Amino acid sequence: MSGATTKKRSKKAGLPAGTLIHIGEQKTKRATATIIVYEGDSFRDVELPDLEQYFASKNSKEVVWVNVCGIHQADIVETIGKIFRLHPLSLEDIMNTDQRPKIEEYDNYLFIVLKMLTYDEPSNLIKDEQVSLIFGNGFLISFQESEPDVFNSIRDAIRSRKGRINRMGADYLAYSLVDVTVDNYFFAMEKLGEDIEGLEDGLVKSPGLQTLRSIHRLKRELIFLRKSVWPLREVIGDLERRGSMFVQESTVIYLRDVYDHVIHVIDTIETFRDMVSGMLDIYLSSMSNRMNEIMKVLTIIATIFIPLTWIVGIYGMNFEHMPELKMRFGYLLVMLFMGVVALLMLVYFKRKKWF
Question: Cβ-count burial of 308 within 10 angstroms (0-12 exposed, 13-18 middle, 19+ buried)?
Fold first, then answer.
C-alpha cells in the first residue's frame, strides 16, 4: 500500500468549492495528454492545442478519447474542463486523489472515480492510483496519476482496427477502461495470495517477530483493498441499472460482466482477510504454546532441584555433631542419593507425560 492511509486535505481548508489544488503524491514529473479520434476503421491523433477547435466542429459519429497522465498540473485539467464544459466540482475531485470510487451524472456527461491497483514486486506492496473517467456523447476523458499507462492495450486495439471497440461509442470505451482496471485487480490478488501462502509456510515452520510484522502488513493491505474495491461494486451496479442516456443498452450486458468480476475480487479479498485473521490467531496460539513449553521445562527443572536444594541445605548447616560429616564416603553417598532422587523424579514426570 503506497502512501499514507489518508491524504492531507488541510491545504484546501477555507478555499471555495471548485478550487483546483492537487491533493496526493506527485507521481510523474510533467503531465502529458494523448488524444485519439476514431470512427470505424479510421483513427487519428490530435494535439492538445488543436483540441478545442476540433471538438467544436467534430463529426457526431466520431469518438474523442483524451487520456491525461499526471494530474498535478492544474492548467491542463482546467484547459480540458473548459473545452468539454466540465463542472468545477468534477475538476476538483479529479485533482483530489483521496476520493472513494463513485459515480455522478451531470447534464452532459457521467463522472466515474475508481482506483487502479498494481503490485510492486521489489517492495511486495500494492500501489494505488486514482483513475477518473468522464464520458458523454462522443467523448471520453481519462485522468491517471502516473505512467506506465495501463490503458495501452485499449489504445493498441483502437489503432489496430480490430475488435468491437472501433464500432462502438464512448460508453463502450468507458466500459473497456473499467474492465482493464478491474482485470488488473486479479493480478494483484494473485501476488497477494502467493505472499499469504508463503507466510503460512513460515508460520508453521518458525514463527517469529518478522512473521508478526508480515501479518500486520497484510492486514493493512487488505483493509486498503476493501476500501478501494467495495464501493466500486456500487458504482458498476448503479451504472448498469440507472438507464443513463450516456450508456447504450448494448453496453449494459458488458457492465454486468464487469460487475461479476468485481464481486469475484471482493470475495477473494474477504477470503484473504479471514485467512490472515486466522494466521494471527495461529501465531498468538503458537507463541502461547511455546511460552507454555518453556515454562513447563523451567518448572520441571525447579521441581527437581527443590529436594536437592533441601538436602544441600541440611548439610550446609554448621552443627558440630553431624554423624555423616565424619564418614569417609559421606560425600559420595550424598551425591549418589541426590542423583537417585533426581532420576526418580524424572521417571515420575515421564510416566505422567509431563514432557
Answer: middle
Q: What stretch(es) of the chain map to CATH 3.30.460.20?
A: 10-285
Alpha-carbon distance 107 to 98, whole Å? 25
The pLDDT of residue 322 is above 70:
yes
Cα–Cα distance, 1 to 115 (Å, whole number): 12
Burial of 3: CB neighbours in 10 Å, binned 0-12, 13-18, 19+: middle
Q: What is the pLDDT of residues 93-107, one digit of tens each?
A: 998 888 889 999 998
Question: Which run of H or E residues covers position 231?
Answer: helix 209-241
Q: Greater confidence, 228 or 208?
A: 228
CATH superfamily of 10-285: CorA soluble domain-like (3.30.460.20)
Residue 3 has pLDDT above 50, yes or no: no
- For CATH 1.20.58.340, list the domain ranges present in the chain: 288-351
DSSP calls for 72-138: --HHHHHHHHHHHT--HHHHHHHHBTTPPSEEEE-SS-EEEEEEEEEEETTTTEEEEEEEEEEEETT
Q: What is the CA radius of gyration of the chain?
A: 34
Least confident of 116-120, 123-127, 202-206, 249-253: 202-206
Q: Find residue 212's DSSP bridge partners.
A: none
Q: Does 1.25.40.10 match the CATH number of domain 288-351?
A: no
- 8 A C-beta contact, residue 95 and residue 71: yes
CA angle, 143 then 147 then 152, to 5°? 80
Please write the tens of the pLDDT for every residue from 207-221.
778 888 888 888 888
